[in-house]
Every structure is written in C-alpha cells, then in structure tokens.
Amino acid sequence: MIGEIAIGAVFVPTLLVVALLALLLTALLVRVASKAGLYRFVAYGALVDVCLFIFVLAALAVLFPLLGVHL
Amino acid sequence: MTQRYGIPAALFSLKSFAAAMLATYLAFSINLDRPYWAFLTAYIVAQPLAGAVLSKALFRIIGTFVGATAAVAMVPPLVNSPELLTLAIASWLGLCVFVSLLDRTPRSYMFVLAGYSACLIVLPSVETPGAIFTIASLRVQEITLGILCGSLVHGVVLPGSVTRFLLGRVASILVDAERWSRDLLALEPRPDLDAERRRLAQDVSELHQLSIHLPFETSSHAPRVRTVRALQDQLSLLLPLGAAVEDRLRLLQAAPGGLSADLLALLADVRAWLAAPATDHETRTAQAAALHGRAAAIEPSVSAHSDWRDLLRLSLLARLGALIDAHRDCRDLVDQMTTPSWMPVTPRAGELLEGRRNRELHRDYAGAMRAALGAFLTILIGSALWIVSGWQDGATAVMLAGVFLALFAASDDPLVPLRGFLLGTLVATLLGAFYGYAVLPRIDGFPMLVAVLAPPLLVLGALMHSPRYAGIALPTLLGLGSPAIIASRYQGAFAPFVNGAIAQLVGVAFAITMARLLQTAGVEKAIRRTIAAGWRDIARRSDASGPPDLRGWINRMLDRVALLAPRLALQGQRDGTPLYDALRDLRTGAAIAELRQVRLAMPPMDAAPLTDVLRDVGAYYRNLDPAAPAPANPALLGEIDAALAAYAAADAPAVRRDAALGLVSLRRNLFPEALSYRGVAA
C-alpha cells in the first residue's frame, strides 16, 4: 500500500512529497557546504550532490514513519 | 586537449542518448501512456552547460504544471461549446506568448511552455473531455520523468560548467574592450572600429542571458549574479564614453594646431596602461588614479573667455578620466568573479556591488502584442479549419502550429527555424517509416530497441551540438520520438502513422503560412518601434525634474542597441546610420541626465537657460517621426550656445565645468555638423 497525501482532491504519493523535501534540504546543505569551502576537498562535486540527496532521502524515509506518516 | 576531434559533441550526444534511453526505460516500466513524451523531453532539455539544463528543466516543469492546470480548469466548464473552448485556449496561448516576449531571458521559456502545454493537452482530448484530468496528469508525469533523467545525466556526468563558460566569455570580452579603447585612443583612426565596438552591446546582453543560469550552478565558486550585473554596468559605460572620447579627439586632431604635447603623452600612457594593466589591485588602482589625476591636472578651467577648443579639450579629458575609471572597475569586477570569496576584492568593487540587483531592459509591448495576436489567430483559424474539415488528426496540426508560433515568437524571422522544422520533420518521417516497417518488426525487447535507435540518435545528438545543424537535427530527433517508434509494443498500423506524419507536416506548413501572413515588414517595424521607444524615453527624461537615473538609462538604451544591431544587419543596413543611431541617442540621454544633475544642484533662478534647452530637446524627440526623422531645429543650437555662454560666467567652478560638459556633449550629439561654438560670431 502506497501512502498518499490529498492536496485538494488530488492524491499525491507521500514519497514524492518527501523526495521534494529532500531535494530542498539537499540544495540547502550544498549551499552551506559550498560556503564553508568543503567542496575544495572533493574531486567530483556533482556526484557528491547526488549522494547527499540519497542520504537525505534515506534519512527522511526512516524519520517519517517514526513520526507516524506512512510512506 | 578535450576540445579537439569533436570530443565535446560526442560526449554531449552520448549523455543525451543515455538520458533519453533512461527516461524511455522508466516510462515503459511504469506503463506511462505516452513514453515518447519522456523521450522527447530528455532531448529537449539537453544542453552542453549543466546549469543551463537545470534552469531549463525547472522552467519546463513549472510551465508544464501551470499549463496542465489551466487545461484542467478550462475544459470541463466549456466542453459543450467548442467555439468558446477554442477562444479560451487561443487567448491563453496569446497571453503566455505576450508575457514571455516581455521577459526575453531563458526564463521566458516557462511562459511559452505554460501556453503550449495547455494546447497540447486540450486539443487532442476534446473528444474525451471526461479524461482531461488523467491526460493532464500523465503529461506532467511524462515530462517530469524526462526532465529528471535529463537533469540527472547532464548534471552528474562530466557537467559542463556555466561558471567556466561565463568566465571565459568575460575574459575575452574584457580583452576586446581594452583593445577597442586602445585603438580609439590611437592617433590614426580605424574606420571599422565603430561598427566593431558596437558588438560590446551584444556581449553585455549575452552576459545577462548567461547570468540567469548562475543560481542553478551547483558547483562551488559560482560568481554572484550581482557581480555580473555590476560588470555589465561598467562595460556598458565603455561604449558611450569611448564614443565621446573618440569624437572629441578627432575634432581636436583636425583643428588647427592639433594636439598639445602633454595630451599626446597622456594618451600614449593610457594606451600603454590599457595594454598591460597591473595584475594586483593596489598597483592597478594607483596607476588608474595617477592617469586620472594627470587628465584632471591638464584640464582647462572654464571661464567666460573659453573658446570651443578649450571646451572640447575639457570634454575629452573629463571623458577620458571616466573611461580610465570604468576600465579599472571592469578589471576589479572580473577579479571579483574569479575569487571564490564573497568579500569585495577592493573597496571600489564593494561599492559597485552594493545594492545591485536587476538590469533595466527595453520592453516592446507593441511587438509582444503583435506576436500574441499571431499565436491567438493561428489557433483560432487552425481550429476552424480543423473542425470544419472533420479531419481527426487535424488536432495535431493545429497544436503544432500553435506550439511553433509560441516557440519562435521571439525570433525576428520565424521562417528560418520553421523551414528547419519542415525539413527535419520530412527527414524524420522517412527515417520513421524505415524504422517502423523495416527495422522494428524484426526486433524484440528494450535492449534491441536501444541498439537499433542508437545510430541515428547518436549522430543527430552530435549535430545538435553544432549551432549550424541544430536547427535541423532537433526537429528530426523530435520527429523520431513518434508514438509509432517509442512504444512499449510494436504498432504496425500504417494508417495512423501516415495520418500522424501528414498532420505534423501540415502543422509546420500552416505555421509557416501564418508566420508569413503576420510577419510582413515585421523587422522594419520592429526597428522603428525600438528607436521610437528610445526617443520617447529621452523626451520623458528631459522633462522630468527629479534626480536622473543615469545607470537605468544606459542599461535600457544599451539593450536597445543590442536588439537593433542584428535587425539592422538583417535589413542590410549597418548600425550607426545617421537616422537610426541608438548609440547617439544613448549619449544624448546621458548628457541630459548630467544637465539635470547640474540643474538640481543650482538655485532655481539660475536654471532658466538649462530648462529652455532641456524642454526643447524633449520637444524635438517627442515630435521625431521614425518614418521621416528630421534634424534638430537650429534654434535649439542657439539655445545651447546661449546656455554655454551663460554658465561659463557662473560663480561656482563646479557649475561652470559640469554644465559645459553636458552642453558640449549635447551639442556634439545633436548638431555634429554645426560650426564651432562662437566660431560664427567671432
């Protein structure tokens, strides 16, 4: 069973909403890390961005069921 | 090294192919209705620069979503009256085209897409209005899937950096600008220099377009947009200042006695400095200050006895000083862009960056209105023909015609890209027939499909990388992504394939017809509108009384210069013909701003001669007719000379100098043929 959130009368998969949230969080993290100069230690920034997104999404996917939101 | 042997093109093609196949595979595996939309979108967002892909992707997602929402909102209430539905969809497309043409940056794609997505969703579904929500939602999903795959591949696999490209462009623009300034300070004039220098206006516009992608650059060290804006401001100053310096210099050279020794020495030193400015900030600032100081030191002071030669010399030296400063600021800002830190590299760079946000641009409401009307009429007439003829696939034709008019509304001659599309569609139809009836029946499974599609797609993808063939390669690619080929199971029916192909060709042909009907004399009119907008602006500014906005004026007018140059070239005219010289108008407006500043600083009872001049300049520009521009009234020349005489006798030295500077510029711009000041009387 796929969890869904109703926006108006439209059902949107919860995972999509969580993924969007993860994307925003990742963008924020990338900005902060870039400001802090962390990307100077990285050979291939784009790949780090993608991995970061996967980590954030995984973290959220663990976190949300704990808060009672079914994915 | 990697730039040789067409490696960038091959890499780009491979990346686009991988993205498209990934999108197709995912679309197949989740059983989307039209997997070819995901395929097409992956190719449409493909661009060499990663930041540009991401920005286009975001604009496309937003546009599609808004368009789909509009479609869902429009269809159910109007489904019983096709006339009203057609009217609604045509108006929606027209509105979106109008807004997109006012924007003129890569952002405008969002508005175009909102317009034509609604057409793409509504027109094929008028037969089944009940399914409109499902169709709209599927279209959004298919597009989003294609966009995500495209962004992922282009953003992650060896991303082309917008920053690197921008910095490369900036470096070459700076080198060109410094070379042009050196050439105009040289003693023997280069006849083609003026035309070449005007390219700077286009370069500044190009920086503007590139800067839209900067916020999407994920890599570190992307320069801030405000740094680019500040650099645009300073580069924009170079064109009018350089033109003024050159004008005064040539006049003084031709005058009896020629140039004095101190002036010649200063010019040689400025040229030497421009050839090799110091690389560290302090030395460079000191060098510029020393040169500026020397120019100020040999500046003649204005008095009641000053003659035309003194005034020209004053004007030359003052503009030269400003030119030196602008070059120094450009260098500082380029250094600012290349440093990873956000701290200002010099105090001056900090000042320039302070509060810098948007660039003022020319807005052509009439032109946007015209294009919007074109798109509106195309949908209306097309729908009428389609409904009356009863040809079911006619919907595709109308839809495509609307899409094309929206997509190419911004181009001066939509026929050029449309012809490319016609040719590309033709090639794609032949290729599609070959694939559909010779190749696809023999294959089975997704890996085979990828393998057989690879040869044409990889070649076309590589062609897309070259500006020369992109106009044909993209339409061919889009044609190949037809429902007959990118489908989860083989569809052998011949009739729908031919019907679809004919509808596509008819759509392009109809778009060409409508574009020809609507665009007659479009370029000529566009030139006149742009010029006349500048004149109205001058008239308004010379009547206004508050503090002048010189930077806004220069930005907007330089944008007009950049817009005019390619259009004039299209007309076979060189920019800078006496009638349509937007650069001269720019300088006139700048002189007006200077005079208004002088007037603000002086007590009101002294302002009468200046107010006379400003009022009559405003009146002259207000009555100027773009169809038959007339030279300025000689009475105005008398007023300018009277004002020159009046302020030369003023008490405050600053008023004497600043009023003379503005008035000399105005006199030279409006009356280039006039004899020297007091030359007639004396």
Q: Treating each run of at least 4 consecutive H or I residues as one helix, how many helices of chain A?
A: 2
First CA to last CA of chain B: what distance?
68 Å
> Strand-residue fraction of chain A?
5-15%
Q: What integer is the average pLDDT of chain B?
A: 85
What's the total helix number of chain B? 26
Q: Name the quaternary structure.
A: heterodimer
Mean pLDDT of chain A: 85
Number of domains of chain A: 1
Would you mind describing this structure in some detail?
Chain B: It is found in: Cell membrane. Chain B: This is p-hydroxybenzoic acid efflux pump subunit AaeB. The complex is a heterodimer of chains A (71) and B (682). Chain A has helices spanning 14-35, 45-66, and strands at residues 4-7, 10-13. Chain A is mainly α and 71 residues long. In chain A, helix 1 packs across helix 2 (45-66). Chain B folds into 3 domains: 7-160 and 361-518, no CATH class; 162-216 and 225-341, Up-down Bundle (Methane Monooxygenase Hydroxylase, Chain G, domain 1); 522-670, no CATH class. Helices cover 73% and strands 0% of the residues of chain B. The model of chain B has no long low-confidence stretch (mean pLDDT 85). Classes of the chains: A mainly alpha (71), B mainly alpha (682).
Q: Gist?
A:
The complex is a heterodimer of chains A (71) and B (682). Chain A has 71 residues and is mainly alpha-helical. Chain A contains two helices and two strands, in the order ββαα.
